Amino acid sequence: MKLTSSNDATGAFELFAQAWQRVRGAPPTGATVQSIAAVSQHESWFSHGRPFNPDDFINLGAIQCGKLPTKEGECPPGCKAAPDSKPNRDGSQTKYGACFKASDSFEDAADLVVKNLTTNGREACIPFLVSGDAWGLADAMYRTRYYQGFGATDYERKVGYAKAIYAAAEKNAKNAKVDNAVTLQIPPDPAQNVPPTPENGSDEGGGALLGVAALVTAILAWLNHRRR
Q1: Using CA atoms, how far apart are residues 51 and 70, in angstroms rounded to an integer?
Q2: 140 and 217 share a domain?
Q3: N or C: which end of the chain has fewer CB within 10 A?
Q4: Mean pLDDT per 10-residue segment, the chain (228 residues)
């Protein structure tokens, strides 16, 4: 089976449904198939987006080999060199050369995506693949270092990825003429909900401590006065 273009959502759904059955040994939910296809659409445009192409560089999930190219730009067997980037804490990106898996067929590439999302420490992704929860999936994938993303903070990177795979799911559903089974609900940034404390400059916290100190001072002064 071959996906004919970056818009071949119908083919992608069938491909990933079969891959899930082979790898997991059970039929997937519709949300599962659409979630995996959304990741694939976003990461590699179903292997029709640069640097991937269906003629000699099939990779459905931008899956790396875990090694960097040599100085000569060579990668291990079964892998090919291509550019990538990683985020910095100031929000900028640093480019680097990476080695990406190059599968011999779309079936092999689809199996690799399912394995990469559900095994070897990424079992946390499974519930969100089954339910179609884009935020939960993006969070689990980030925590298990499937992607590094864009943005200055962990929250920004996860939000960006969650929005990207949800948009991909919307596009796939439209092209396949089905309802989108992937949902997105982004929680508030936890960094914006830090309780006020004296250490972070809160007047409220500091005022409370000052009030207690003043009360203790007054009691001690009264006791000293009575002893005279």
Answers
A1: 18
A2: no
A3: C
A4: 94 98 96 98 95 91 91 91 91 92 96 96 96 98 95 96 98 98 95 58 36 42 46
